[in-house]
What we know:
Layout: H1 5-8, H2 12-20, H3 71-79, H4 95-110, E1 121-129, E2 132-140, E3 146-154, E4 161-167, H5 189-198, H6 203-209, E5 213-217, H7 242-248, H8 256-268, H9 270-280, H10 284-301, E6 305-315, H11 317-328, E7 332-338, H12 344-347, H13 370-374, E8 381-387, H14 395-411, E9 418-423, H15 431-444
Parallel strand pairs: 4-5, 4-6, 6-7, 7-8, 8-9
Antiparallel strand pairs: 1-2, 2-3, 3-5
Amino acid sequence: MVMTKKSQSIARRDFLLAATAGTILYPGVSSGETARPPQTSGYEYGLVGPDRSLKPTIDRTFPTPDLANLYETMDWISSENQPRMSFLGSKWSNLEEWKQAARPLFHQHLNYHPTPEPLSAEVISRERRDGFTLEAVKISATAAYSIPGWVLVPNKARRPAPGIIALHDHGGNYLWGHEKIISSPHDPPALTQYRNHFYGRPYAEALARKGYVVLVIDGFYFGSRRLRVEDIDAATAPGDMRPALEELSKIKPNTRAWFSAINHLCGRYEDLTAKTIFAAGATWPGILNWDDRRSVDYLASRPEVDPSRIGCLGLSLGGLRTDYLAAADPRIKVACSVGWMTEFRAQLRNYLRNHTWMVYIPGLNGSLDLPDQAAMIAPGAFMVQHCLRDGLYPHEGQRASVKKLGEIYAKAGIPERFSGRFYDYGHSFRPDMQDDAFAWIERWI
């Protein structure tokens, strides 16, 4: 497939806007193309071309840094803040001692520690599906909110069964959360297009049919928890938001144009939402991660679930939530992070433009970079899946992060418990990637 400059520049939000407008733009490969990884362990995978090199298949060169003359200062600051607490440092030889020092620091920087309500859940609905039962539940969380969740309980599974936290993506699509990976007979065409493009199937259902009890929640700011921009008074809104809010008020709800307008405004309001979260004394990753850990509380409490056999996985923001959940919660025994693993310094020049405010944990990178954080799952097993046509990360950041994770696991004496794989796709979690992730989970859970 020949990639044009125009197609190379298409990002997740551009696809979303195109899909909701009735046009699909494909930055990656077509649904008929496949690329299977070699079935070996370790961190060097060559999946492109007859020489199986790791050369990326899109041009990611930029003539100038995004911050022009300020970039050199930013890069220097980053060089002064390289991770001092990496397990690869000479100070550390014992994995458990390192985690005892690193994990509290991780939690501290998340800066969100609400008092939890007593754990309970209200079953809102129950529906028999092909191979599983789908329960909609409301999970107790804090005095301010509960967490909407959907539990997929397999019809035929040895009890207690392993449990999986499946984490939905961002994708510039705020209208839907769990719906991205769980289907419904009433899905609008725009949602079906979105799911087919990034996933190829509702993979939470595939996991349930394999015998896992699967929990999917709506992350903060998505689905039933999104910002209701349609309720904002356009006349008194921030000035730069008023034209879009006024236009939204004229659009018929639940149409493609309305979907697109809602997602566009929610994206623009991320800046103000992030400022408000910081001013309130928390971090956006802190909120997401606390809720994901609360999901583990609930999943582990289910009578159908073996609490000693819990894993997690997700694409994009779901991959980052996987990284952070693996770092924060020792109950996670196996994880697969798809499409969100890099070294943050590599992102500075031209790649922070691609990402949401939901990513950043202020002040943490001087102690632990993202691979160091995710490695706290060890000795639990960790898989990273990268897409070589993914324009959201520099290839050197992708490869360096996988190399570092491999070195951490090797130093810990358990190299077989880490796997890094590269696929010749655009940003996605396609069925063959899912099959590899499911096999990894089955091996180690």
